[in-house]
Amino acid sequence: MNRIKFLKTAGALLPLSLFHKKALLAAKGSSSTVDEMDSVLRADSKIPPYLQKGDCIGITSPSGHIQYKELLPAIQQIKSWGLTFKTGQTIGLKDGTFGGTDQQRAADFQQMLDDPSIRAILCARGGYGAIRIIDQIDFSSLNHNPKWIIGFSDATVFHTHIAHNYHLATLHSKMCNSFPDNWASATAQQQATINSIRDALMNTKKMSYQSLVNPMNRTGRAQGELIGGNMRTIENLSGTRSSLEAAGKILFLEETHEYLYNMDRMLWNLSRTGQLRHLKGLIIGAMIRTPQKDPNDEMNRSIYELVMEKVRDYDYPVTFDFPVGHIVENYALKCGVQHRLEVTTVGTTLVES
Amino acid sequence: MSVKPLQPPALKKNNLIAMVGPSGFIDAKKTTDCVQTLQRWGYQVMVDPNTVGLYKGNYFAGSDKERIQALQQALDNPEVKAIICARGGYGMSRIIDQLDFKKFKKHPKWIIGFSDITLLHLHLNRRVKVASLHAPMAAAFMATEDTSYLPFIQKALKGGVSQYKFPAHPDNHTGHVTGELIGGNLCLLAHAIGTSSEPDVKGKILFIEDVGEHFYTIDRFLWQLKRAGWMNKIAGLLVGDFSTTKDTTLPFGKSIEEIVKDVIPSDLPVAFNIPIGHQPQNITLKCGVLYTLKIGEKSVTLKEQKS
Fold first, then answer.
1. How many domains in chain A?
2. Does B109 touch chain A (CB under 8 A)?
3. Are strands B270-271 and B236-239 parallel, antiparallel or unpaired?
4. Which of B191, B258, B194 is nearest to B228 (CA)?
5. Chain A environment of B196 (Cβ under 8 Å)
6. Amino acid A13: pLDDT
7. Does pLDDT of A219 surpass 60?
8. Where are the domains of chain B?
9. CA–CA gap between residue A261 and residue B262 (Å, rounded)
10. pLDDT at A22
């Protein structure tokens, strides 16, 4: 088969997996290297159109329950960016902990995907529930009408599902419930993280991030698309059609409210499913752990050691304490967009390229 | 159709059982009743001094190296006819890929445990193809506990064929199926998916249990199993103990029965409230062995097929 034609077919319909990498290598001939292949594959993720003034953001709740009044700080900012908004029918709905029944949440998300006037879909909050509806949503309209899907934590499901099946960039960022109630009195950091959502969506400027040096970092440079999110969510997508496909990419991970041993087990799942083997780089954000009731039950390791032991056979750069996760310093990250990572002995930079 | 796992031979009087700690630390005091009971059953017991009852200043029964060594020696030693894991907790994920089952495969022996040991059962089923015992561990033998479920281990070790009868549960789906048993702790089942330890569950009877997780976490695990295709492949489902499941401030609003029924085909035979899990009422199940499950209107029976 003609390789370019194959690529186009694969890009439109099929998961971008190692299987395809092997198939592509076979199609290309034995002289190819994986690096060459990555450069071919890098072109694959499409980027939805950036938002212009007057464009509309749809706000829906695919996971946890949220009330309309909790959206107001986000709505105020969206307006200040010159954008408009529509709220979905799930806002205010409640079914147990969910923002409406599975059917209601799926239908609301579907309606926003299918509405051509909506240029981006912002998940109102995380919590739990996306995995229950992901298979009920038909994302195929993204092929002809791509739009930004925005969120983190439980919304990691959307990032990996869309990357796996549609090769489209998405935005990992704070959601409505993280916008400061009073913008004027918000800290500079709070404002900067919220502004990073605007910068990413409206392409006001190239994204750029810094973090302080951590002695456990592994220095190096890398270039690749970003992919990642919440570790627990990623583990529970393993073996499904929404699974993480991190090969050839820069992976970022964050976690909250878990015992350290659970985080270790999640890292082993990443390791044992082969996700850490072909990375370009690894970014570790906030790893917020729940202490054991009995301190004698703690593992005598740091999260840094637990990560490094899983990647010691590889030589890509690894950076810790990156400003992403369930913390105030949670900056917007464009999944599926090329970035350059530089981890040096004086600090780390990540720059959109 | 996958190859039927080998069944280790039954134990004889004076056979040697090794107790090792492959996962979390256990206090020596919690193991003495177990050792004495196994001795009373007519077995010799060898306790690994390095991973059982020796506090190393942290969570684990020993360093990764010590735990691998203890389990590897017990696997390889032809004199050892069964291995009882002292405790679960956490740690099997860290060592599973460093274990070598070549000698063990030549002279298979029963491996006993549950909870974190689920990963070892799954690995044995998928990679090694040897049956193993999902059964209580050392602390369950303490005289202060309800020890009425221990005779089931004794019977299994002696080569007895297990046969259980449970009361019906109003949420059960009736049915009559025969299949290999596989299962264990739900968190570990989910954890194995996508790895080299993930079992082929086609046509099998799956059993699940979990301890102290939140309802939404249980729900997420079950959705992973469903989305990985398990619920359409299995022949039957046994739902064990979930009594310690925690709720959130905003109640999850669904019972375990409702959560399970949401993710399974409506015609899948399922039985609830089966005594499997982190409670004294924990039956002994042979993973990788054929059982016939009959879920009727009045009762549930689970019978091991004579091999």
1. 3
2. no
3. parallel
4. B194
5. 272
6. 40
7. yes
8. 16-157, 163-304
9. 30
10. 47
A131 to B93: CB separation less than 8 angstroms, yes or no: no
Chain A residue with Cα closest to B255: A96
Does residue A190 sit in the same domain as residue A318? no
User: How many Cβ atoms sit within 10 Å of the Cβ of residue B284?
Assistant: 23
CATH class of the domain defined by B16-157: alpha beta
Q: Which domain holds residue A249?
A: 208-352
pLDDT tens-digit series, residues A31-69: 444 444 544 454 579 999 999 999 999 999 999 999 999
Q: What is the pLDDT of residue A43?
A: 53
Does residue A176 sit in the same domain as residue A230? Answer: no
**In this structure, how many other beta carbons lie within 10 angstroms of the beta carbon of residue A33?**
10
Residue A202 token pair? 């409206």
Residue among B59, B93, B224 minimizing CB distance to A268: B93
Which of chain B's residues have a Cβ under 8 Å away from the Cβ of A239?
A: 193-194, 198, 224, 227-228
Across the interface, whether the CB atoms of A273 and B252 are under 8 A apart is answered: no
d(CA B11, CA A165): 52
B152-196 pLDDT tens trace: 999 999 999 989 999 999 999 999 999 999 999 999 999 999 999
Q: Nearest residue of A to residue B57 by CA position?
A: A296
Task: Please answer whether residues B255 and B222 qualify as being in contact, where contact means their C-beta atoms are separated by less than 8 angstroms.
Answer: no
Q: What is the ipTM of this complex?
A: 0.95
A36 with A85, same domain? no
B270-B275-B281 Cα angle (round to 5)? 180
On average, the pLDDT of chain A sits at 91
As a whole number, the mean pLDDT across chain B is: 97
Interchain contact B219–A (C-beta under 8 A)? yes
Residue B250's pLDDT is 86
| Superfamily name with CATH number, domain B163-304 | LD-carboxypeptidase A C-terminal domain-like (3.50.30.60)
Q: Determine the residue among B25, B59, B245 to mutate to test chain A binding: the one whose Cβ has the most chain A Cβ atoms within 10 Å.
A: B59
Is there a domain that residue A50 lies in? no
How many pairs of residues across A and B have Cβ atoms under 8 Å apart? Answer: 89
- Give the pLDDT score at B307: 67
CATH number of the domain encompassing residue A292: 3.50.30.60
Say yes or no to pLDDT of B252 above 70. Answer: yes
Decide if B220 and A241 are in contact by the 8 Å CB cutoff. Answer: no
